[in-house]
């Protein structure tokens, strides 16, 4: 079951609002589209209790609580059949940024390495601070994910990599779509 934030959760995460604990807020940040089991496994199993509390308090909802699709009245053309007037970004597209991806890597470093191996965590922190562009930041992230694969398994590393990819802004090549980029033909 995939969980989604409610409007109450979005208000809680807006600047200047702090009614939940840090763990509850961080779980809310990650909740949209995540599976219930993934969220419950967070914080060494305490995530299950936090998820239950957030659902009970109305911050999270499952697919059953989402509004059901209804048939349009006779004579009304459904919005999906009308020509779109504005090209809207995919959901979450506006949340893609290098800064967000960088913060995700810092957070991952803290959660996975700070207690277990403080020296390694400090190396990753220093490397992330020194990374001044996308490529160098992703190199550090890849090294971190390789370490995660060694200690926590390939599946855990793959889930972290997937989330990182969701946070990264798309490159110009990715935005073009399925077309293959080719070199100009040599006319000589």
Describe the structure.
- The structure is a single chain.
- The protein is mainly alpha-helical and 188 residues long.
- The protein is 52% helix and 2% strand.
- It has a two-stranded antiparallel ribbon with strand order 1-2.
- Helix 2 (22-31) packs across helix 4.
- It is globular, with a radius of gyration of 21 Å.
- The relative contact order is 0.09.
How would the blueprint of this fold be written?
Layout: E1 4-5, H1 7-12, H2 22-31, H3 36-40, H4 47-56, E2 60-61, H5 98-113, H6 118-130, H7 134-152, H8 154-167, H9 172-176
Antiparallel strand pairs: 1-2
Weakly predicted, low-confidence segments? 64-72, 78-91, 172-185
Order of the strands making up the biggest sheet: 1-2
Q: Rg to the nearest angstrom? A: 21 Å
The secondary-structure element order is EHHHHEHHHHH
By DSSP, the count of extended strands is 2
Comma- or semicolon-separated keywords:
188 residues; mainly alpha; two-stranded antiparallel ribbon; 2 strands; 2% strand
Summarize the structure.
This protein is an all-alpha fold. Helix content is 52%, strand content 2%. It is built from 9 helices and 2 strands, in the order βααααβααααα.
């Amino acid at each position: 079951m995939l969980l989604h934030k409610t409007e109450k959760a979005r208000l809680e995460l807006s600047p200047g609002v702090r009614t939940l604990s840090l763990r509850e807020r961080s779980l809310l940040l990650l909740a949209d589209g995540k599976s219930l089991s993934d969220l419950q496994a967070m914080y060494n199993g305490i995530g299950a209790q936090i998820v239950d509390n957030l659902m009970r308090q109305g911050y999270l909802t499952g697919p059953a609580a989402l509004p059901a699709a209804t048939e349009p009245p006779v004579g009304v053309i459904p919005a999906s059949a009308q020509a779109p007037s504005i090209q809207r970004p995919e959901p979450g597209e506006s949340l893609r940024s290098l800064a967000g991806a960088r913060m995700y890597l810092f957070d991952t470093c803290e959660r996975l390495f700070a207690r277990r191996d403080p020296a390694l965590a400090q190396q990753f922190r220093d490397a992330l601070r020194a990374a001044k562009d996308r490529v160098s930041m992703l190199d550090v992230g890849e090294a971190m994910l390789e370490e995660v694969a060694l200690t926590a398994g390939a599946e855990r590393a793959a889930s972290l990599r997937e989330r990182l990819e969701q946070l990264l802004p798309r490159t110009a090549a990715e935005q073009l779509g399925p077309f293959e980029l080719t070199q100009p033909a040599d006319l000589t």
